[in-house]
Amino acid sequence: MLHVAPSPPLARCLYEKRGWALFALAALVILVVAPLANLVTPEGSFLHLSDASVALLGKLFCYAMLALAMDLVWGYAGILSLGHGVFFALGGYAFGMYLMRQIGHDGSYHADLPDFMVFLDWNSFPWFWAYTDHFCYALALAILAPAALACAFGFFAFRSRIKGVYFSIITQALTYAMMLLFFRNETGFGGNNGFTDFKRILDYPLATPQTRIILFMLSGGSLLLLLLASRFIVTSKFGRVLTAIREAESRVMFCGYDTLSYKLAIWTFSAAICGLAGALYVPQVGIINPSEMSPAASIEIAIWTAVGGRGTLIGPLVGAFVVNGAKSLFTAAIPEYWLFFLGLLFVLVTLLLPKGVIGFFDAPPSARISLPFTRKEPAS
Q1: What is the DSSP string of 197-256?
Q2: Rg of the Cα trace of the chain?
Q3: Which of 11, 188, 309, 321 qualifies as a cystine partner to 7, CB 3.0-4.6 A?
Q4: CA 286 – CA 114 distance, rounded (Å)
Q5: What span, in angstroms and rounded, lies between the C-alpha atoms of 258 and 342?
Q6: What distance in Å separates the CA atoms of residue 60 and residue 318, rounded to the nearest whole number?
Q7: 85-111 burial, b for 16+ CB within 10 Å, e for fewer?
């Protein structure tokens, strides 16, 4: 029988009564308390939630969804992806096409086409822009396009039994190739500048506090629903097989399981989560460009997961908030040193906290800070 390592106690709270209480509290804060604090509470009050804080938290919710998607494939299936940024950006571009068409004649050229198409002397929309003026179609495209790309890529990669560092390198090559493709003006995605200057969504102005708080609520609510769905997956038989694949894929194959189908399913689902995160991210940030597909962006997603604690569901969410919260502070204070801090953080977590931030709180006080080469392993 395969031995599957249990989750840390703090991570297991998601499956206990106190976990449900915390989940309900989070839902209450996101759906009720935060909107009231932003729209009703006077600006001078210490309980007031500013529009800037709403925008920042909404962005962090989207990042947390990315970390959750990474945890499903890396933490539970043992598939380290360094290309999840491309699925996130594809979702953003797909929904960005809808937002660009919502601008209408309010652009600089007052034309039917977006400004970048007019500037490049385009006479009509490319074929893949068809029906993107419909909200439901654009949202579905934002989820299904990354899922389709992931399914096609994963099928050939997993069938060829590419794994480990080789798979990670190939995924990084994929995101780099897509970034170079989207940088080209003739692809119809705005080239270097991407999509920006959004005006409306569903004919409602994006700049109003009401619209921003609704996007905030949708982002937070989607994160909670995806957390529930992920909990259901990892606690099911499907999830247990995934964990067994992570521990010893060859033994799972000898037991008669089709590991390719399991890995492909969770890989595709993870990409769909990234696409949804991208669709929610774009209207809140107001821009999407090829830099979101850079290899560095995908590596950051893996760092969030490692810092929080992979294989725990809760840990990667904590990591996304901690790292990006620190990023907001450091880029404002000492922007030139932010990347050095990020690298140092990853090295320290790898050496001192192999189970991430979640594992730190679950370890006994005497063992919370100990180097791996000084820690004695228990006798088997």
Answers
A1: ---EETTEETTSHHHHHHHHHHHHHHHHHHHHHHHHHHHSHHHHHHHHHHHHHHHHHHTT
A2: 22
A3: 11
A4: 15
A5: 39
A6: 10
A7: bbbbbbbbbbbbbbbbbbbeeebeeee
pLDDT in tens, the chain (380 residues): 444 555 555 555 555 677 788 889 999 999 999 999 999 999 888 899 999 999 999 999 999 999 999 999 999 999 999 999 999 999 999 999 999 999 988 988 888 899 999 988 899 999 999 999 999 999 999 999 999 999 999 999 999 999 889 999 999 999 999 999 999 988 999 999 999 999 999 999 999 999 999 999 999 999 999 999 999 999 999 999 999 999 999 999 999 999 999 999 999 999 999 999 999 999 999 999 999 999 989 999 999 999 999 899 999 999 999 899 888 888 777 877 777 887 887 788 878 877 888 877 665 554 444 434 334 444 44
Burial of 364 (0-12, 13-18, 19+ CB in 10 A): exposed
The residue assigned the tokens 């999830």 is 239
Residue 204: φ, ψ to 5°:
-100, 135
Exposed/middle/buried for 288, CB within 10 Å: 0-12, 13-18, 19+?
buried
Token pair for residue 217? 């609520």
